[in-house]
Amino acid sequence: MTLLFALRFILGFVEAPSFPANARIAVMWFPKLERGRVTSLFASASYFAVGIFSPLSGWLVSAFGWPWPFFVLGMIGFVGALVWGRFMHEPRRHPNVSQAELDFIVAGGALVDIDDKPELKSKPHVSGAILKKLLTSRMLWCAYAGQYCTIALSYFFITWFPIYLVQARGMNVMQAGFASVAPSLFGFAGGISGGWVSDSLIQRGWSITSARKTPFILGMFAATSLVLASVADSNVLVIALMSFAYYAKGVAAGAGTWAVVTDTAPREAVGLAGSIFNCVGNIGGIVTPIVFGYIVAATGGDYGAGLYFVGAHCVVAALLFLFVMGRIERIGDERTQLDAMTAPVPS
Prior knowledge:
Shape: globular
CATH superfamily: MFS general substrate transporter like domains
Strand content: under 5%
Radius of gyration: 21 Å
Largest sheet: none
CATH class: Mainly Alpha
């Protein structure tokens, strides 16, 4: 157990830059009106991965033994690293980007020169003033807390949901693995839907604030439906409720978490803001499985109490975005108010 814990810690340490890097790439490569879809795609890919590898891991364990999921997933990681190194370039240095495409994304607000601006090179990228802005912004702290709550739901589905199906719903390990597919795929679809809806609302003339916050608030309130599983008398109904809740949570995350960070972080600190955002969010990944386990143990195996604990995160996140966050705008860029930039970019 000690070795597994240490290896899991190292894995989290080395994979931590992935989401902040994705946020920076979204700012560099994509116009503002497309960022919701882009960030929802990379944020939702984890749901899709869980949907694929939950049954695959169950089959590998049954057929070959418990080490094999580690071997297979590890090899996929190596292949992914090779693909990334081969195809990832900055916009101006990409061999397949035409001048017309480059002009289009620049006109739409993509920060293609974010790493080349002389004013950014002449001073440290991470200054005390910038860090203070990132740590004192009420708007960003609401985004951080929203990510904490969405990650808390994700880790419930990743860690305790299969156990819940086995211990509370009477499924075997193989059945639980396949039953976990539906919520994960619905979560993936919800994430893509949230990003698409948010961007579409901006194109229809909605402000950035309304377009990002509305799907998030509605999605998180809808995700509280997972608590109804505690009184459901059918496994099919439980899977249906969990799938709907994960879809709604995906809509919220796709519209209002990473997209908000890419829209609002200081231009010179998008990666740092994404790192803080991801760090706070992943605290939810640490706390939720532990607290959920203690709740189940303290209540004599009552998973219903644990479900209410998870559902409370949905309510808290929705209320923060609704009543506390305020206007969504880029920090340190007073010349450009994002809410005024609602017109579609001409082709």
